[in-house]
Amino acid sequence: MTDDEIKIASDLAQEYGYKKYMIARYLKLWGISETKQLLESNERQVTPTIRYNSLRIDRETFEAQLEKRNIDLEQIDWLPDAYFVKESQVPIGATIEHLLGWYYIQAIPSIVAAYVLNPSENDIVFDIAAAPGGKTTYLAQLMNNSGLIVAMDPDRLRLRALKSNISRCGVRNTIVMRFDGKNLNRLPFVPDKILLDAPCTGEGLIVKDPSRKTSKTQADIMYCSTLQKDLLSVALKVLKPGGELVYSTCSIGPEENEMVIDFVLQSFPEVSIIPMSIKVGEPGIVEPFGVKLRADLINARRFYPHKHGTEGFFIIKLKKGE
Amino acid sequence: MSDFYKASNSFVKRVRARSADWFGRDYFGEIFQDTVFVIKERKKSLSLYAISSLLWEKLQDLLNVQGLKIESVGVWVGEVKEENFNPSLELMQLIAPHIRGRTMYLTERGSQIFVYGHNVLAQSVKKVTRDVSKNDIVLVRSFEGLPIGMAKILENPKKIRKMNDDEVFAKNLLDVGWYIRSGG
Question: What is the ipTM for the molecules in this complex?
Fold first, then answer.
């Protein structure tokens, strides 16, 4: 970086309350203008979104009932089951309908990650790092409560939330395990599909949790990146030939996303990156920080607060050859 | 021996009989078809789950792997502790559409208070079905008819209009607010 760029990074870091290394990376990736847009958007709240749960109630009743509650919904046309909450007289987490599992308060990219995996009713699906269960419960909905989901998470406390949400949402096709995904090769059967929402620094969640502006270091990024590579490698090993895997994180750094995929796929020539059914979102970054990665990473989708009004998120879909 | 195992027929029969005490009669035949019942042993109780034959097949495979910590499977039916059966909210939600009578409807305010885990005050009661007597366990519905839990009636319903507003009319046994209180 030039002296001028270093000064700009310092000034923006101070103005918006970030660690300097984060801003320096953003400037390299997106330049000054877009970096400022991102930082500004992170200061504003995103419109809350909910996902309708067909396992509990029919859509007509759901929409009519929430209207009676004076909750103003707008259906998202490109994402079935997802709604913006434009206005609500009551906290959307405190309604009886929420307690009854009629809907799940869930960010758009998180809904997308489960949606693009596109599980069928007979599939065996592994959901790695599944807690608190937003994606697990949507997978079950997409599978019409058939087939099998093995939902795993190593964290005992987070598992409580996962079990509670599974029960609340009427999910019946799931086995919940306290289990570290790094040990997937110990499991006695192979999955047709895998959802790997990898543990990450959560750099995309600043819009919801400003403490993340300063709570993570470059060492955290490196740590997460190593963990993500390990998890993805073992997941691809156990995936059934012909099977599909969706990898996602709530981070916007290429170090936890494209660079992880590029690194791991060098050891898996039989695995390809495939386009997703969703066209919303930005394409993946194929040359971050001047490092040239594989060109088909363009098929990934990136979500940003300043472009999509969502938290920052990364999603990519992989297919293992027969 | 694994802490998960298939429930015996006699165990399920006992649970079904106990569930009838809660819901007025045994509804298992209507809500659980082609189901395998499995038990997980916990420190002080037994958790009962209802699962499909596919889940049972895969669960058995998993149970053969040393050291796996399986937390739950399929539908959590309830807990058995010292021969007492406590139904889960999931069971309540499955059975609620089948229940006729044995129901207490709460006011709007009463519904909100109930799902915070509180007992039912006389002023919170909108209506009680005619078949309900003192000491009955009833389904609790919100002012709009949504099933929100179970309660035990503590007073003769015919005398409710003579009770003080702040007197407890029914004891909260189970309410859907638990989903959030338990970490959901």
Answer: 0.94
